[in-house]
Amino acid sequence: MKKIIALLFVFQLIFCSLMAQSLPPVDKSPMDMSYYPVNYPVLKIQDKATEPLAVRVVYSRPQKAGRTIFGGLVKYGEVWRMGANEATEIEFFKPVKIDGKKVAKGRYSLFAIVNENSWTMILNKDTDTWGSFKYDAKKDLLRTTVPVQKTDSPLESLVIGFEKSATGCNLLVAWDTVKIALPISL
Fold it and tell me: Would you say the C-alpha torsion 40, 45, 48, 52 has a positive or negative sign?
């Protein structure tokens, strides 16, 4: 009986070792998701949602890690995927307006061309893409420019979220000492 238990233990160790080798390593830039209304999934399960789901953004959250972010890691004047890894995606659950332009319900990639004083925000029809390596301006749905604001203190992680506004919500993007707000009319 002892031999059988010892043999089972050895097989379990081998199995666990093989399972551990087949799992991918933990990503340094974890994926995150933000909603408008803010915390919608939690509000929904608590039966406290007072507005229907309007928009969701999915992105990977890179870290500053001592680097110069804007003008360094994120080059001025070049298309940026608004995060790390896959291109950031935004999904509208109903038609909206951005900069007075109608945007149909659907899923889009979100890119930016970053400059010191303003960012050009880009909604692109191509989704499920890695980074901005295959970015195609011909697939842009819209471009709009938003001003850069300074934060009170540096943020270690990229943060993308939403805040309520008089006409709907603002998509907020903040990292290091910079933040922007993209107005979305609902």
Answer: positive
